[in-house]
Task: structure prediction
Amino acid sequence: MASTMRKVSLRNLAAHKVRLLLTVLSVVLGTSFIAGALVFTATMSNSFNSIFDQVAVGVDAQISPKTTSTNAYGGIESLGVPDSVVQQIEQDKGRLGVAKIVPGYQSMMTIAGSDGKALPTGGAPTMGANWVSKSQALDPTGATILPGGRAPHGPHEALLNKSAAERGHLKVGSTTRVLVSAGDAKPFRVKIVGLVDMAGDTSGYTEMDFDTATAKKLFTDGSHVSMVQLGAVKGVSADTLKQRITKEFPGYKVQTGAEVRQENKDAINSFLQIFNYILLAFAAIGLIVGTFIIYNTFSMIVAQRVRELALLRAIGAARGQVLRSVMLEAVVVGFIGSVIGLAVGTGLAAGLQALLSSTGTGLPSGSLVVGAGPIIACIVVGVVVTTVSALAPARRASRVAPVEAMRESQTDGSGSLRVRTMIASVLAVLSVAALAIGASGKGGGAAGMVGLGAVGTILAVVCGAPALARPVVGVLGAVIAKPFGKLGQLARTNAVRNPRRTAATAFALTLGLMLVAIIGTLGASFKSTIDSAVNEQVRAPILVVGTGATGALPPTVSKAVANVDGVDSVVSIHGVTATLNGKGVTGDSPSGDITKAANINLVEGTSKLPPNGLLASDKYAKNHGWKVGDNVTFNGRFGQDATVKVVGIYKSSALLDPWQMGTAAFQKLTPPSLRADFVDLVLLKDGADQAAVQQRIEDVTGRYLTVKVQTKQEFANSNAQQINQMLVVLYGMLGLALVIAVLGIINTLALSVVERKREIGMLRAVGMLRKQVRRTIYLESVLISIFGALLGMVLGVIIGWCLVRTFREWITGITPVVPWGTVLFTLVAAAVCGVLAALWPGIRAARTKPLEAIADM
Result:
């Protein structure tokens, strides 16, 4: 009997190919993203590891600063290792066991291509360094100058890596402009005297090498070296040399070459792991949506097979055998979907890798890595999800009594919803309470409470959506379907007749659009906050900002802008990094009168900032117990300590938090080689033509490569554009859930057509035309789609609104903004998707032959 039941299950799958295809497809979409995420990150990790395997080869010990910090622009601040350390190692080479010393000088920089614009890197670094010849290098098999080139000599000659030269259309003999990111460096021209083939030469990586004397002058303060690489004498191991150097120079980071390579690998793998988590999160969303579709599909399949399963019971099949029969179908579907999902996911990873490489993102290329992880994950997740989704329908199938074989009626899922509705009501009350508590607070704890409320809301929708389906779809039907007369009434009746099925079909769309609404609300709120802050707080009509890798402006830019005709003054905002009470802190330091360029809402004290004074926001002052007249000592990380006097406290704002420091104190804390501007606020002379002055500033700053001149509105729009770019990526990935949702509607409607075959046949027999049948299915799909979209958008906006409220801890002045445009567009799009989803089921229903349909039952 067991063998017979297996044959029945397999033949049943083979006999319903369309149903099998639709069910398998929902599994494929979920598992393919899991496979794609795992394969892509494994491929990237392997590619980066192969590059870093070539780093620090031949190095037995490397000395670098023990502590560095990230400045306000994202750049790494470090003065390096003092020359005195290098000199002492040179003097004690014999005692320490050092055979060769290779000083390294490097820094971030910007390089222009043949078109005069900065070379695009796609996020990969652009580095300047000193060229080390083979005779001097610890690894003689490392970077090499390609034929036709030579080593650089003097301050205006340099080498460039091959891929960067190709990207910038540069060659040996080309002359181009370069700019060092920090310090008082000015743009200057260099001649490329050679191209270099080096490890790590990815699609976006750029490196320009100078002779050692030039590199030291450009990239350090003249008394430090970025790092020191050492080679040990024969008989002294790398670990031994490391121990000796560490003992001799305890204030520095000392690593073996192997440790340097591993550190680089760990850093990139950590980044890739975060990226992997993001991809897997969206894959999980797809799986959740797919789970409900699979559950809905199996529920309908079981409902359609009541007589078939009852007949099996009547001829002797036990409940367990019927249960195992349905579960076997689920396992087969899950396995097939997982295998196909693995193949599709591998293709997605290959496509993503090719796309990122072709667009110059800075990521390396390499062969795909399909290990055991993606294979096991796909099969296990796909089979488990499908099996669990089918468990409840399978149990219902096993409980079908043999007497059901004598009846023609089938369950339509319209039974009592009392228990589900009661559970949903309790969950809804608890969720509303959690959302309200979270929205009334701020910070991580409040955000966590909102998240808890969101989860509870989703569960409440799962349980309560069937009860909502009848009244909501009924109202929608009265409005949308009414113009279609009897066809609209029939579509409305079909949509509310089985509320469980309608709710399950709509839930996939509800979940996807709820996430869209949450993200849309966050994005609209962030953009509104930026726009309001710039318009209300910035008084300067023109802003000069940096666009390079670090976002910093060399100090020489403000001097050049100040000399432009029509400019009254320039207030430069410097980024300050320091230590306060043992913790790293960041703030700003304006050069000039900040009140001329920005509106400061003073709470107490004065807004006039002396050289060794401090203006603090009320929130920051309260947190640190500061009052006007207090002296505060900031500890410099690379310079001297600075004691400042709190002269004024102003109301917290999005642009002026957390404090403003006087120029003299800033200069004590920040060495000249690490000083840079965050933004230059330009004030105009009375009567000056703003457009003409802006054009003159653009002409003067064009040679700096990384400078952008903007009006206040352009500055606000550029920041909003960055948010839009992030939203596009998120919306694109959420498209997976929406695609699955639309497929779920197609799936449900197609199965519904099969379930109502006799009904449709009778309608055709009494005179309903094919186009009328199609129109009825279209209207039913539109009603279900709008119901799901409306529910998702309402819940998403509420959750997003509450979540934005919790961000007041981190973003001053942020207020929730409802993205009405997104809401309206989504509802219209949902209606369109409903029509598209119903095309095939509608055509299939219209082709139903009346006599065959009636005889079939």
Summary: The two ends are 28 Å apart (CA to CA).
